[in-house]
Amino acid sequence: MSPAKHIVVIGLGSFGTAVATRLAENRCRVTGVDSQRERVEALKDVLYEAVIADATQRDALELLPLKTADSVIISMGENITLSLLATLHVKELGAGRVVVKGVTHEHGKILEKLGVSRVVFPEEEIARQLADRETWTNVFDALPIGEDYSFVEIAVPDSFVGKTLQETQIARRFGVLVVGVRDSMEGGQVTITPSAEYKFKPDQILLMIGEKAKLERLREQLSESES
Question: What is the CATH number of the domain that holds 158?
Fold first, then answer.
């Protein structure tokens, strides 16, 4: 078993707390940092290491294991100045992978100039996922892969049931790749890279990769055919 990842989470507001808690549930070693004692105290039984410190002060950050951490996640609320200061210090102190919660897109552009690994906009990402799920009810999940591609889970439509993968002609019609099929029941069987002769059954989920535009066209056509 590989050793647990060590993640430093700077800023334990609502987003930072949620991330730190989930990381701990995933058996990561989480060092949580915040200037407010009550926030740190609230997570002391969850964190591997709890630190009360002002992340905008470079000397305070020097005491953290930034160079050896697998990732550093920064969430400094809505204060762009504090976020930029903390990010600047963390990068200068040798952190490798740095993920920062963005406040505005201008803020995100500055963070990218500082060399962060990723800027996240949680509300926007959740809003897009919710909107997609409400629009295309046959879509269970979607994961962006770069700017142009996505991995999606789509319920096998009734029109596919009883047909083979070859008969559906998904690749030819839509230009996307079926990389797996999963039974929808909990703990259901997963078939990776199904053959052309694989026959679809009810209550299954397609695991697909493709260009976002092509996947969207597929989802639209499947929704229209099922309506």
Answer: 3.30.70.1450
4 close to 26: Cβ distance less than 8 angstroms: no
Are residues 170 and 115 part of one domain?
no
Domain range for 167 is: 128-226
The whole model's pTM is what? 0.69
Beta strands in 11-159 (DSSP E): 29-34, 49-52, 71-74, 98-101, 118-120, 139-145, 149-155
Identity of the residue numbered 199: K
Dist CA 121 CA 221 (whole Å): 30
Cα–Cα–Cα angle for 11, 40, 71, rounded to 5 degrees: 45
- In the chain, the number of structural domains is 2
* Cα–Cα distances in angstroms (integers) from residue 32 to residues 10, 23, 73, 92, in the given order: 6, 11, 10, 20
SS3 (DSSP) at 210: strand
The tokens describing 86, both together, are: 């903390």
- Other Cβ atoms less than 10 A from the Cβ of 31: the count is 21
pLDDT tens per residue, range 83-118: 999 999 999 999 999 999 999 999 999 999 999 999
Query: 146 vs 181, which has greater pLDDT?
Result: 181
